[in-house]
Amino acid sequence: MTDTVPAAALPEPGPGSPPAAGDRFANADLRPVPATERTWTTYNFAALWVGMAVNVPTWTLASGLIGVGMDWTQAVLTIALANVIVLVPMVLTGHVGPKYGIPFPVLARASFGVRGANLPALIRGVVACAWFGIQTWVGGQSIYFLTGRLFGADSWWADAGEIAGRPWTLWLSFMAFWVLEIAIILRGMDTLRRFENWAAPVMLAGAVLLLIWIANEAGGFGPLLDQPSQLGWGADFWDVFFPSLMGMIGFWSTLSLNIPDFTRFGTGQRAQVWGQSLGLPTTMAAFALLSVLVTSGSQAVYGEPVWDPAELAARMDSELAVVFALFVLLLATLTTNIAANLVSPAYDAAHLAPRHITFRTGALIACAVGVLMAPWKLYEDPDIYIFTWLGTVGGLLGTVSGIFIADYWLLRRTRLDVEDLYRAEGRYWYDRGWNWRALVAFAAGGLLAVGGSYSGPFPEDGLIPFLQPLADYGWAVGLATSLAGYLALMRFAPPRGQVLEGGAPTSSGG
Q: Which of 62, 88, 154, 211 is the most buried (most CB within 10 A)?
């Protein structure tokens, strides 16, 4: 689909005429980034992904796959393939960043409508706030543990009185980590870029040093690498492989949606494509392999595999080594949490009320919401968090990605009228600011993606029983359904004044 303006008359790629700050649907943070301020290079994007991918959940991904019967080669290959697959929508959606300089909520206006874009922005923002709170709690625990090792097991720090069932020093650590994150994000995206640049090599060095230490302790690696797959390569393996693959894809499905929040600062398409390609699948696969090697060594040393890097670090004899290892874990949590879970809700909150909420104000709101969601309780009850909420949101985010790709790549052929993205009564206004076609496609994709999801840890808890076979493929089902549905609705019931590729102007309403 194109607009009624002839293709030759469409503006060249660029930010267009930026709306004035304080406009009804814009502020300084939502406006297109000027070309002169798009300074992120290939290294910056690669470092961003190293900073986000190197974290404790990534470390333990392989353990989950080995736990279901895979051997280490099958586990690492599954993780690598999943991240190559999720890289595709990541790069496709990220294309809009260097070309137009707009963030994720503004891109959503092209398909959902200027007002309707608040729906995907709200969904993405809520899940990010919850993740932010949980990661902040984990980071606070790292500070608490690190400080405890410095003061000693019999110190006042370890024997502190309790508040709400937990030591007050743990609450203090949690708040300290929370304040540290706020201090970094309030300094803006350029500070985040510089922080990721120096943090990435430090974290990789820390992981390699952990490998060298455990190899030295083990005198080589243990029997884990020699254990055969419990599934083989037959039907049993494929029954486990595809649901596992979807789970690994879902790990970064959130970022595949709001990646324009970062690529809008890119120097060009080459920077975002190569930076993401070099940073995401390679780091995820290499880090998974590293975790398997280190855990294999731990089995040789301790007689059992130790998958939690914090627990493993605590077993080191050297106090200095323990402090460095825990510092790396703290740094990994910090870089992941700010980039993956704070940038998006900051923009999403600003999008809800551009006149009153800036990026920094949105970040503060997200930080507050993350705490108010009581992340320590979510962390304590993974059944409720994973099965009833995160699984549902993951499927819905895949549904939004399908609509984005269909609209931006297949219908508009990457051409947007930037000025109309920021005003009422333009070509993206649709019906009072909402595009009902996107809403219908979203509802259909969401129903198939999450309708059979579990409402608890057991299969019989599925919401809609006959849709349960689709539950393990929620992200892919949602993306494919919404993409096809949106294309069909836009072609057979196109908005007034817009045309299909090579067609004539239409007069249908809405």
A: 62
